[in-house]
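Limitations
The structure tokens in this dataset are predictions for the assembled complex, not deposited experimental models. Users should treat interface geometry with appropriate caution, especially where small molecules or nucleic acid strands are included. An illustrative entry is reproduced here so readers can see what is and is not provided.
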Amino acid sequence: MVSVHNRKFISADPEKCVGCQICEYACSYSKEKVFNPIKSRIRAVRVNQVANMAVTCRLCEEPACVAACPRNALSQSKENGSILIDKDKCNGCGWCIEACDYGAMMLHPETKTVYTCDLCKDKTEGPQCVKWCPEEALTIVTSDVLAQKARLSAIKKLFNEKP
Amino acid sequence: MLIYFFTAYTPKFVGGTGLLGYAGKVLHVNLTTASSHVKKLDEATAKKYIGGIGLGMKLYWSNSKVGVDPLSSENPFVLAVGPISGTMFPTGGSGHAFVSKSPVTNLLGTSVSRGTFGAEFKRAGYDAVVITGKAEKPSYLWIDDDSIQILDASALWGKSPEEVEDAIRVEIGDFYVRVASIGVAGENLSKIACIVNDRTRVAGRTGLGAVMGSKNLKAIAVRGTMDVSVSKPDEFFSLVKDFHERMKGPAVQKYRTMGSTENLVHLNDMFCVPTRNYNDSHFQLAENIGSSVINERFVVKIIGCNSCAMRCEHEVLVREGIYKDTLTRIEYDSLWAFGPNLGVDRLDVIIKAIERCTYYGLDTQSVGGVIGFIMDCHGKGLLKNNSAAVLLEELGFVPYFGNADVIIPLIEHMAVREGIGDILADGVKVAAEKLGSDGDDVDAFGSLAQHVKGLEATGYDLRCLKTTALSVAVSFRGADHSRSGAFMLDLSGKVDRLKAEVGRGKLVEELEDIYNLIDSFIICKNAKGTLYKDVEDLAKLYSAVTGKEITSEELKLAGQRIETLARLINIREGLTRKDDTLPWKVLNQPITDNNCPTKGQIVTQEELNLMLDDYYTARGWTLKGTPTKKTLQQLELHELKNITITTKKEEG
Ligand code: SF4
Ligand code: SF4
Ligand code: SF4
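Predicted assembly:
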């Protein structure tokens, strides 16, 4: 199993995200060949005009969604930590949806089974949302790198330097 | 043997039949009978009128009677999106257009807004909705894919668009419901009321908020869950990629960085900022409210509309003083309306004024126009011994230019039509008529009311921007610089801005056609600079999305068709050449400022006549401004018979 330190997930920088929803279009198109936000694995959330951020699966350690599934339909990929869904076992009951703190697990409007970000593992060029985000708000990173970045920008702010 | 089980499911997608890009469906809702039905949008009509304002006008034409009172149940109200709405094309997801007869001009009214509402509407599976009749009580229209309901809005009456959006989301239990709503001003049938969506995005001009109010229609709420596809994905994505790059480039840098408020400095340097209701053309205090101050001290975030890769919406926050914590969006037009136009250099007040207009659902440009008018009346000593004087005195207002303190109370009075607010709530033209009939001097008041066809003038001094002047005079929806963007020609020096000459007609015509297409596709006018090849780019986009080849020539023709259709609607509603005019001061009061290189400038009636003749000719209209039979045939508009008959008479 890939260690939690090496697990890379999609993270959005709220300072940079402008709520344009392009990531939703990119994701739904790359996954399902249509433009439809409700088929996107990533969702842009605008709480108000100044609070914008896109959210998707964080590849948690001991994922709550996996633990919650009563039918053992979910497991975590040993390779990259993403959540694997056995569509034959999933009956769309939604326990995992409730269990995820980020709303990253979603019920598909047509298959009626759940789905979530798979890090675009089928794409040689990597995550499509990252590729298309015009603000470079999205990155595929580990928690450790995120922490480094956060520390840096906090200290820069403290010393009034440009981030 | 292996047996496979398939769960049968059918994806729902927009435009399953016919042209991709289009939903192929027009929803008709009758509020009187609380009924709705869907009609097919045929391919020919789609291709002819494109979508957005073009399709909206066509639907308005086909569903309306001549001479209806804009605020009666008979006046149809149309909402339309375009063929690329709901796709990933940058700015293509963001727009929607409203079309109806405007209460402020009594002619065709159109207004486009952006945000996320349009894309949601497209995913609900419609290209347009035509709303007729009048609901018995305050209501809102709830479009949930193919389920259409007219729901009670009694509890929402009196609320602001933002409050309405929140309340509807709670009531329906879905955070992603998108809402376009009127405020109190629309309920009170203010002829300058707007329609607000996504909190800060506004279909501002031509008073269409009052049309909704007159129908007891507080809001339209939409949830669309269907798929949108494009016909040629490879071509489409290479266009998207290309435009993402273009949007990072210099063509739209202004919008990405300082924002449209940057216009103020440039316009002011060139002495073409109408100041104090057109008494001057240069604002000495402009620096205090310039885009650098705005960005340094007030901007807290720049956000983008759906699918836009060049986000431009500057959110401003007042951090101190009596208007502390006011948060809204700022653009040049609103900045001008409450700043230079009123001689005011207080950004906190300007920002508050914009926020209040959004809260009450009033068009900032028209409201600024009205307040500038009343200040001018005061300055000219016209507010004596009449009802306005009494009403102002009761409130303790002295509306002199530069008096920032009167702005917010005046807006509030207009929204609820209280006292002086009732006189002002219908725009400058009505205000001047009311005040004029009260005293003895109709003309004195009229000369201070800066409008065309009833719609208030905007922040470009037309006396020294003559191509723009022509464009504003012929604009089908009244005083408005954004029907052609001709100001770019004047300001960039591509033409001599102080000269009225033959040839300007053609220039304005061509720009109008492109703008018509932009508003019909719908993409964002702020992104106009990224259309390096104008119509050619649009033609590529159209065929990548719909799968139907369209040539640049065909598209140009569509742009012309849309303009001529607008003309036909206006002629039907009584417009004649003399309505293609300019604000009184533009024609009659030369720029007086001694420091101003454009001192003495004015647009004379002769100059205007010359440009009108030129423009009509370029359009294939008679010198009376009526499309000729030949033009109608060329544009395939000859089916619109009743107008053809008038044309014949005129020609014969
Ligand atoms: S594409 Fe980027 S900026 Fe736009 S919503 Fe997604 S994360 Fe935010
Ligand atoms: S990484 Fe791929 S699957 Fe995951 S949200 Fe981004 S585009 Fe969608
Ligand atoms: S340029 Fe600005 S207004 Fe236009 S779509 Fe983008 S964010 Fe919206």
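Some entries come with short summary sentences. For this one: Residues A 12, 17-23, 44, 54, 133, 135, 137-138 surround iron/sulfur cluster (ligand 1) (CB under 6 Å).
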